[in-house]
Input
Amino acid sequence: MAAFAGLAERLQQTFQRLRGKGKLTEADVAEAMREVRVALLEADVNFKVVKDFVARVKERAVGQEVLASLTPGQQVIKIVHEELTNLMGGSNAKLKIGSKPPTVVMMVGLQGAGKTTTTGKLAGLLKKQGRRPLLVAADIYRPAAIRQLQIVGEKLGIPVFAMGDQHKPLDIVKGAMEHGRQHGNDYILIDTAGRLHINSEMMQELVDIKGFAQPQEVLLVVDAMTGQDAVNVAEQFHQSLGLDGVILTKLDGDTRGGAALSVRAVTGCPIKFVGTGEKLDALEPFYPDRMASRILGMGDVLTLIEKAQATIDADKAREMEKRLRQQQFSLEDFLQQLQQMKSIGPLEEILGMIPGMGKQLKSLQISEKELSRTEAIIQSMTPAERRHPEIINGSRKKRIAAGSGTKVQDVNKLLKQFEESKKLMRHLGNMAGVSKGSKGKKGLFGLPPLIK
Output
């Protein structure tokens, strides 16, 4: 994720140096920990959190098990991975479910954090799981907040309970609870009002709503791009209201990402979901171990497989896998593959989930504009050229470039990307082959999932 790009690069460089050493001394570990400390502080992680984290890692890393190990660099990375995972909460924190329906989720936060949209995204996620959520428009202060929630509800096919902005929020919630019970909604998601800053009037209103609705979950929506301010906001809400979890939005933004590493340690509240984009399906459960793996350059194959299973046509994937195995993978298949990968998410993010592949395949980072250009180039080829790109010589490249309104360099770049794509798919095929006995669900590109 973009939020961790700088931190990930810095940590990976540090550990690359450790990997190259046959034996580690305490001085080696101390130097690496200094680098880790600076990297975390530059990523806007809370100072006390950094201090405690580095102390824990250092204490474990100078132990006999590491210094006497045959692969001491890997041992240190393993310790950092475990401590990063613990720092972010250890394991995925699921939503609590009421003993009898409906389960009530109260969404709180400041204005501008994306609370209304996130409330809709969470309802959409629940609907995909077979639930029957009801959205409640209880923000009567922000202009157009009610209409915004209604538009989100319409797009997702989820009902919205609204009484306009002339009723008190508590009365709206009372009406919504009754409506939800009568209509068989098993989740009620309350979009409460935010302010530009925390004040006693807002908090009292939220306390009153919580007192009546008795929610199973009070979730704070915070903007990851606000850095340490996100942690301070979480602390204040937790003290006044008692939070059950946090949703970090805009984790795809070009920011330093420290909030994700600090908020759990400072408040004790788990991060339950993260927003990864503007689309209404861009909300994911937060897995600390997977995030730690991505930060350390170990990839995140499980999330990649889950995304692929949700978006890729299984029959097409099986047919493509068959052609790849028979060495029949063509440029037409390549174009189709790129389009399917784009449906999973940005290619840069996908490559970051594949262990060891990000640096090798940077040439595959293709923008929407480049994808259109790729499509034009392939469509300017003859069927024979698409099936057998090795026949494309200099004169053919000139003709293809002229026909697609591009340059010969663009054609050369595409052919190189095609070869890189085949390498990527062979790599994934080898990884998936580890679990040949897997049956049922198919993973990425129709290959068996890594985990049964």
Observations:
- Residues 103 and 187 are 5 Å apart (CA to CA).
- Confidence is low (pLDDT under 50) at residues 357-364, 432-452.
